[in-house]
Design brief:
- By secondary structure, the chain is of the alpha+beta class.
- It has one domain: 3-Layer(aba) Sandwich (Beta-lactamase).
- It is 38% helix and 16% strand.
- The chain has a 7-stranded antiparallel β-sheet with strand order 2-1-13-12-11-10-9, with helices on both faces. It has a two-stranded antiparallel ribbon with strand order 3-5. Strands 4-8 form a two-stranded parallel ribbon.
- A hairpin with a 2-residue loop joins β6 and β7.
- α2 packs antiparallel against α12, α3 packs across α9 and α7 crosses α8.
- The longest helix is centred in the N-terminal third of the chain and has 25 residues.
- The N terminus is likely disordered.
């Protein structure tokens, strides 16, 4: 009698354990659709890419696609393009947190040359929101030629003051450009009394353990804060985790909650948008990134140019697609479909 009871109890326990395992497994996201999307667009994205999704303290999705084995991984360094602008804004906010800088300080306070050439009223906020009014970079080959002729960030930013026309007063229109972020980077050099890349190392890269990330130019050219960053998918995810956690990374505060909120606050929402990249269509300009709002709540922030990074605060996750060789035309439709496939697996927690 006792033996039969024990066998029955054992069978019941095994059944219960199996049901619990099945129920817990069935509640996990299934990213088969995401896998198929990336595989079908692998060639369009340059053959070598990494996609990561982080939620609730862990990586819930990781996909590495390579043309040949060993070509690319989440630890491999690649250009991050305009995603470096998000890091520039974060670096600026470290100085704001310390009271050494205000977003509404005029650039001419630190770079008097800007007052001399009738660019007195440009602020740091203008620099981080594409509203300086300064003539934008040339496109194509001319852009490459122009970038290569400057021996230092100081020389380049001084040329913005003396050689670039003011096409509109600051804060009058939104025009996507690298100019403002490089000006902001130079201002930080003045305040911090160190080169931009060293400031980035000390204040952002090292605290976030981004060991494969740099803004240094190995060819000896001028540091390019706006578009010269190199990173890995794992590294940049650390940056996103810090943003997602409102300024905290692995228990240590890197930015204040106030700084994160400021970075995600739409800027100059009533201004006409003269030019913005396709991936930002329908989004508001913030500081170093673009945001989408639901009422008064931020539901997402993005930055995209080859590397595409995203934070969804409604679903509480961070995601990135990093490609080894950024394409000349942003694949915004692929990025959007990538996010939609994730959203179908992670339910929202806000209205």
């Amino acid at each position: 009698m006792s033996y039969k009871v024990n066998v029955s109890c054992l069978q019941f326990s095994l059944l219960t354990a199996w049901l619990l395992f099945w129920l817990s497994g069935s509640g996990q996201p299934s990213f088969g659709e995401t896998d198929q999307l990336l595989k079908s667009n692998q060639k369009v994205l340059g053959n070598n890419l990494v996609a990561l999704v982080w939620k609730d303290g862990k990586m819930v999705y990781q996909k590495e696609l390579q043309k040949e084995i060993g070509d690319f991984s989440a630890k491999a360094q690649a250009p991050i393009g305009d995603c470096g602008q998000w890091m520039v804004a974060a670096l600026v906010m470290t100085f704001v947190d310390e009271g050494k800088l205000s977003l509404d300080d005029k650039v001419s306070k630190f770079l008097p040359l800007y007052a001399k050439y009738m660019k007195t009223y440009i602020t740091i906020r203008n620099c981080l929101s594409f509203t300086t009014g300064i003539q934008a970079d040339p496109s194509g080959a001319m852009k490459i030629i122009q970038k290569s002729k400057y021996p230092s960030l100081e020389d380049e930013v001084n040329s913005f003051a003396s050689k670039r026309e003011i096409e509109n007063n600051p804060g009058m229109e939104v025009y996507y450009s690298h100019v403002g972020f490089n000006i902001a980077g130079r201002v930080l050099e003045i305040i911090g009394k160190k080169p931009f890349d060293r400031l980035m190392q000390e204040r952002i890269i090292r605290p976030l353990k981004m060991h494969g990330t740099t803004f240094s130019d190995e060819n000896g050219g001028a540091i390019n804060p706006s578009g010269g960053g190199q990173s890995t998918a794992n590294d940049y995810m650390n940056f996103l985790i810090m943003i997602l956690n409102n300024g905290v990374f692995q228990g240590k505060r890197v930015l204040s909650e106030k700084a994160i909120k400021e970075m995600e606050t739409p800027q100059f929402t009533e201004l006409p948008v003269k030019f913005m990249p396709k991936p930002a269509a329908g989004w508001h300009v913030a500081l170093g990134d673009w945001v989408m709002m639901s009422g008064n709540s931020v539901i997402g922030t993005i930055n995209s140019s080859g590397t595409w990074a995203f934070i969804d605060r409604c679903r509480n996750y961070a995601a990135i697609i990093m490609v080894r060789n950024p394409q000349s035309e942003p694949q915004d439709n692929i990025y959007r479909h990538f996010k939609e496939s994730i959203d179908r697996q992670i339910p929202p927690s806000c209205q």
